[in-house]
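To whoever is on call:

I kicked off a structure prediction for a single chain this morning and the downstream step that reads the tokens threw a length-mismatch warning. I double-checked the sequence; it's 333 residues and nothing unusual in it as far as I can see. Pasting both halves so you can look.
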Amino acid sequence: MRLGLAGTGRIGAAHAETLAAFAEVESVVVADVDPARAKATAAKLGVEAADGIDALFGAGLDGLVIAAATDAHPSLILRAVDAGLPVFCEKPVAADIPGTLAVIDRIAGSDVPVQIGFQRRFDAGYQAARAAVENGELGWLHSVRATTLDPAPPPAEYVAHSGGLFRDCGVHDFDIVRWVTGREVEEVFAVGRNKGEQFFAEAGDVDTAAVAMTLDDGTLATVSLTRYNGAGYDVRFEALGSKGNAVVGLDGRAPLRSVEPGFAPLPGPAYPGFMERFRPAYAAELREFLAVAAGRAPSPAGAADALEAFYIAEACEVSRRENRPVRVAEVRR
């Protein structure tokens, strides 16, 4: 299998390295809006470099992985689908709901598979939690808790174009709440504050947020988000039921410190960021993409899943701005 990769930033370079290590992949061709960066990545990893995106599409590919900037996602997805190339794209499909809907409308009826990168679905812990919910091991759920706590903020220029904390960061939690529970989010109430760098406020964003959500079966869920978790990268998930519970992310590297007397500290060190925490999950989702591209499996996370998570993020942003509960149906289009 010959795969192309568009975008050779941090996540793109990591994906290229992962793909090149798969026995099923005969060759990897990378491209970037900065040809020099693509060539440097190719030289480092021992893969091919195309001289731009047009050359990449002419390289005789069997599938395309998109890790470019968000504003390039829609055009690259549509170009791949039009060319009959199975495509994997890092979230989001587009920068906003109208853009996402436009892509979905264009690819409707196409048999070319599109897989969106929600890597938490491929993490062993989240998969175990989903199985525990599905097989009734937890009984009926009463509460779900999800956290994404970054150890340090991204650069100001990233924040200005990120879409905000809910759309850029919380969207992973919103997707995984849906996926683990098998339920839809009906209503949200979100609050956010800024106690860190001024550039968040200047971008109309917040650096810390909390969301209370009601699922369609009455289960209550909470999502906590921050860009300033000094203890380290902390991503956890708890599903609490009438018979038991399942906790994801409570391993020896969780950045948690108990102050109870006699309680031994976790061995650590804390995960410094998302790549280290989810490296096996990223590899697993790309391996699944090989099966999708080969026609052996359906897409495990399509553009419609990205849209549903985006609707929840949009409802949260409206709730934060207007200081009121918002039903997700209010933002549907």
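Update from on-call: the warning came from a stale cache, not from the record. Cleared it. Sanity check on the structure: The longest strand covers residues 141-149.
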